[in-house]
Design a protein that fits this description.
single chain, elongated
Length: about 150
């Protein structure tokens, strides 16, 4: 086999491999906009459970989120306006309380977004946006009082 023919064969195989890899990466179209169990957050999310724990078992509330109810309310009052979104024609927004709960649960437990979506009834892609936004808001609000850095130079 000549070297030119060998090069053409190698390029042909590389092209087939490239097309095959792109075919594997092709995303399948979504079959539904939102899964049914995620649409009813009051029934399947952790918000009703945490409200129950907060009123009847404050120790368990602290154990779950690593903060007490008063501190939670204080944090919510500080960052609520920063993380509040507006409802659209397509769907209702995720309220600040649920955003903060999801973030604190993530920080306290270290769960992956894929696992956290089952306890919060919030999709993993939404959690990928909510948690960094909420952490940024917490940092913005708390940095002047709790995260002072001394200037050594």
């Amino acid at each position: 086999m000549s070297s030119i023919r060998r090069k053409k064969t190698v390029l042909g195989y590389a092209g087939v491999y490239y097309l095959y890899m792109n075919m594997l990466k092709a995303r399948t179209p979504r079959s539904v906009w939102m899964k049914n169990w995620m649409s009813d957050k009051t029934k399947f999310g952790h918000l009703p459970l945490l409200q129950e724990l907060r009123t009847n078992n404050p120790e368990d509330f602290i154990n779950y989120l690593r903060i007490d109810g008063t501190t939670f309310d204080h944090l919510l009052s500080l960052i609520g306006p920063l993380i509040q979104k507006e409802d659209t024609v397509m769907r209702e927004c995720i309220p600040p309380e649920q955003r903060l709960l999801a973030t604190l649960t993530y920080l306290a437990s270290g769960m992956s977004y894929q696992r956290l979506k089952f306890s919060t009834a919030i999709s993993a892609p939404s959690l990928c946006e909510i948690i960094p936004e909420t952490c940024a808001a917490l940092y913005q609000v708390l940095k002047k009082d709790y995260l002072t850095v001394s200037n050594i130079l």
